[in-house]
Write a structure and sequence with these properties.
With 211 residues, the protein is of the alpha/beta class. Helix content is 49%, strand content 16%. Helix 4 runs antiparallel to helix 6. The longest helix has 33 residues.
Length: 211
């Protein structure tokens, strides 16, 4: 007869705290293992036949790597919404061990809410979108730094030259110079950082449009 074990995993970059809730028995901690695939494989073997343990962990900054590892090994795993994990009033003490025990207990009770887990292709696209968003933020910061620097120095573009156009960048490169070498170096750095951003953004757009 198959004995289902509900396994709660409190996952961090370097470690995983493990707890197991037997189907009709105790809930106990199994300690902490390294967050490495070989250690995860040993854990799966330790828990018995691969169809017995059912793993869960909260969605978070470590992503879905652990989910993919476990499912490749044939184990069942669910990633759950951390904001929907039941919290008892007065339960303010948080440790990795306690969090793993709580996950295992709640998982057995059916009180956790799974989230959709993307496959590798979906996650790759999401990474690309995140990179594009980061590039846009970098471009905005670079513009602000250059603009504030020129304002402090009283430098204004000629009438009719709009900010952040090619003519504006050409004006900055040709006409804006300083006697102090430190200021020249600052200007060069700001210009280099800003002029590189649009090219990076165009590159992300091309990648996103590829089938």
């Amino acid at each position: 007869m198959k004995r289902v074990k509900f396994v709660g995993l409190d996952v961090h970059a370097e470690t995983i705290a493990v707890a197991v809730a037997e189907q009709n028995g105790e809930v106990r901690s199994l300690g902490v293992i390294p967050n490495r695939e070989d250690s995860v494989r040993k854990l799966v073997r330790k828990l018995g036949p691969v169809e017995e343990p059912r793993f869960c962990y909260e969605a978070g900054p470590t992503g879905y790597v652990l989910y993919w590892q476990l499912t490749r090994m044939g184990a069942k795993c669910e990633v759950v919404a951390p904001t929907l994990v039941p919290v008892k009033s007065g339960d303010r003490v948080k440790t990795d061990r306690r969090d793993a025990l709580k996950l295992a207990r709640n998982y057995r009770a059916g009180e956790l809410t799974p989230v959709w887990v993307p496959d590798a292709a979906h996650e790759a696209l999401r990474d690309l979108v995140r990179a594009r968003e980061a590039a846009k933020k970098d471009e905005l910061r670079a513009r602000h730094r250059l603009n504030k620097f020129l304002l402090r120095q009283g430098r204004r573009p000629p009438m009719g030259v709009k900010l952040w156009t090619i003519k504006y960048l050409e004006w900055v490169k040709r006409e804006v110079h300083f006697e102090q070498l430190a200021q020249e170096a600052t200007l060069l750095d700001y210009c280099t950082r800003w002029s590189a951003r649009p090219h990076a953004l165009r590159g992300w757009m091309v990648r996103l449009k590829k089938p």
